[in-house]
Amino acid sequence: MSYLEGRNIVVTGAGRGIGAAIAELSAREGARVVVNDPGVAVDGSGGDSGPAHEVVERIKSSGGTAVSHLADVSVTDQAEDLVATAIREFGGLDVLINVAGILRDRMIFNMEPEEWDAVMAVHLRGTFNTTRAAARHWRAERRGNYRLINTTSIAGLYGATGQPNYAAAKLGIVGFTYSCANALMKYGVTANALSPGAHTRMVTTIPDASRLGGGTEGRRSSMDAEHVAPAVVYVASVHSGWLTGQVFGARGTSISLYNRPRVIREISTTGDHWELDDVFAKFESAFRPAIEDTENIYERAAKLDAAKAVAGDAMATS
């Protein structure tokens, strides 16, 4: 059975790593794939058509259907042409998978505005650009079974040291995905966010990455990008219509579902306004125990995710 037979898919950041693994497995499962990647360095500099073309050639040599596209998704007209390419080449677009991203890591007190802006442009604006173009097509066509899959990161879900720009962008993508899930549901679109974990070239930018990854060759191979792709193929398929507005993780041999934010404690006043003494007392009596009871659980979860995902997962892209 080919789970994506007849599906038309755009994958951004698909020239290497996680994006390439998703594109290749999708094609093997019958999808027609637009492989997008401008071939930039980890920091977004330069450009090379080779990675996207090489993925397309691998897909074609295995009997699949794919075309390459070198769009910089942070540029609106290029992102629009990317979506238009799927429609022009394949007759439509069923699935948009946003994986593209860059890193400009630095502690907040050392970060330059340009480093902040560059990461925001690719991750947040890029995700917005492609999603807007796809949503316009889906709203006009209304055939249903459309899928939007955006990429978040435990860097944003837990807050990575030295990555304030990346963490903010990745958690911003979660809020963006929630909004799209609510707004596009009536047009037959589901929207979910992937938090992936794999050994990719992004990991080489982390100081002492070998220590963070650690383990035997077998353990490292279990964190190959290819292990992320099966979960994405399920979400991209017509079988996942029940799933929307969620964050799911895929790393190694594990697939996870994250909880959505919810109120865990609430305080109120008996009067018609708060007295400061009452606020001070109730904050500590009601909120502090809840935080102290759970923070060790979150710390353990964060450490486990960091260990499995090499200190922060695939760092988004390639």
Structural notes for this entry:
With 318 residues, this protein is α/β, with parallel strands linked by helices. The protein has one domain: 3-Layer(aba) Sandwich (Rossmann fold), CATH 3.40.50.720. It has 10 helices and 8 strands. The protein has an 8-stranded mixed β-sheet with strand order 3-2-1-4-5-6-7-8, sandwiched between helices. Helix 4 links the parallel strand 4 (95-98) and strand 5 (146-151). The longest helix is centred in the C-terminal third of the chain and has 33 residues, at 276-308. It starts with 7 loop residues before the first strand and ends in a 10-residue tail after the last helix.
Arrangement of strands in the largest sheet: 3-2-1-4-5-6-7-8
- SSE-based structural type: alpha/beta
Q: Indicate the CATH architecture.
A: 3-Layer(aba) Sandwich
CATH top level assignment: Alpha Beta
Mean pLDDT value: 90
Cα-to-Cα separation, first versus last residue: 29 Å
Per the CATH scheme, the topology name is Rossmann fold
Rg (CA only): 21 Å
Number of helical elements: 10
Helical amount: 40-55%
